Amino acid sequence: MHELAVTENILALALEAAQKAGARRITALNLVIGDLSSFVDESVQFYFDLLSQGTIAEGAVLHFRREHAVATCRACGHQFQVSPPLVPICPNCGDYHLEVKGGQGLAVESIEVSDDDEAESRKADP
Amino acid sequence: MMKLKVEKRILSANDEVAAQNRARLDAAGILAINIMASPGAGKTSLILATAGRLLREIPLGVIEGDLASRIDADLVATRGIPVTQINTGGSCHLDAPMVRTALDHLPLENVRLLFIENVGNLVCPAEFELGAHLAVVVASIPEGHDKPYKYPGIFARADAVVLNKADLLHVFDFDVEYFERGLRMVNPSVPLFVLSCRTGQGLDAWVTWLLHHINDRSGSSVPATS
Q1: A112 in contact with B at a CB cutoff of 8 Å?
Q2: Beta strand pairing status for B113-117 and B60-66?
Q3: Which of A48, A64, A40 lies closest to A13, judged by CA?
């Protein structure tokens, strides 16, 4: 549900960065999303396509780099990747005492811009 | 094609307003607590039960966040507590600008402890800083013991966790140990208070923890962090 609010912020950050650099078109956005943050990539792209209409980011593709959460077993030290719902047990030794770290990122890493007006060239392309 | 570095938290605009809220609360000498839970876990009940213990010594204030209605705010107001209602109009969480507006409607000079009751939801509120000093997550026995496993993000951010409706433990198959193990996975040292707002059992430890934080703040100007 909060993807809409988050996507508004993603677009604003991208437009601000492009404007500062004097770029004419945003072709892609590189995002980092933590695995514990319950975001649905498709939903963010869907809102982005709606919100970016008529801006220089219209048609831009979102690339999601997932920041994984890693569980460490306090008994045997085994480490493994987790996402919700978390497993309650170490798959290596069966102990119940695990610690999960990471997976909380939520950032715009970079954007890809171009000086061509790609929207125009797309229209011209049959 | 050219790559431009941005490297900004997606919610940095919200974070900035949250920092302003925090500065305003600090200047007024207020400890603010963001209370998050699923609907029906007992957020309002916890505020009212806490008020029952503290109201004589600590002036309280409450910000109520709901999709719609004033039901919770009216309930709090009947106890003589200054309260303001935020209706998010469909938004599933409070954000820092909403809290900024709400602060304008409270007599801050007469408040030392401010409860900000977030919208009932275990997903979205976790991402939005409000400017509060502490985040408290309320879970309850009827919800089941798997919540920390399913919603690790919000439990990872909690400064304290309240497990409410402990008076119902004998009715439900709720394994407190299992719940706590899940909680410790993402938040190893967070205080856990098992209590019942209805019967008052377990409230002493919670109130003691709160008083400790209130006294901590009135003694010094605490630096603004997260």
Answers
A1: yes
A2: parallel
A3: A48
Residue B184 has φ and ψ, to the nearest 5°, of -65, -25
- CB contacts of B130 in chain A (<8 Å) are none
Among A1, A106, A113, select the one facing B4 at the smallest CB separation: A113
Least Cα distance to B23 among B136, B127, B99 occurs for: B99
8 Å CB contact between A102 and A70: yes
**pLDDT of B82-132, one tens digit each?**
999 999 888 899 999 999 999 999 999 999 999 999 999 999 999 999 999
A51 in contact with chain B, both atoms CB, cutoff 8 A? no
> Considering the entire predicted model, what is its pTM?
0.92
- Helices first, then strands: H and E counts in chain B: 8, 8
**CA separation for the pair B204, B207 (Å, rounded):** 5
Residues forming a β-bridge with A69: A82, A102
Q: Is the ipTM of this complex over 0.90?
A: no
CA distance B186 to A87: 12
Distance of CA B186 to the CA centre of its chain: 18
Angle in degrees, 0-180, between the axes of helices B96-104 and B12-27, rounded to the nearest 10 = 30
Quick count: other Cβ atoms within 10 Å of Cβ B145?
20
Q: Is the peptide bond before A85 cis (omega within 30 degrees of 0)?
A: yes
Secondary structure letter of residue A15 according to DSSP: H
Min Cα–Cα distance to chain A from B154, Å: 9
| Residue A60 DSSP code | P
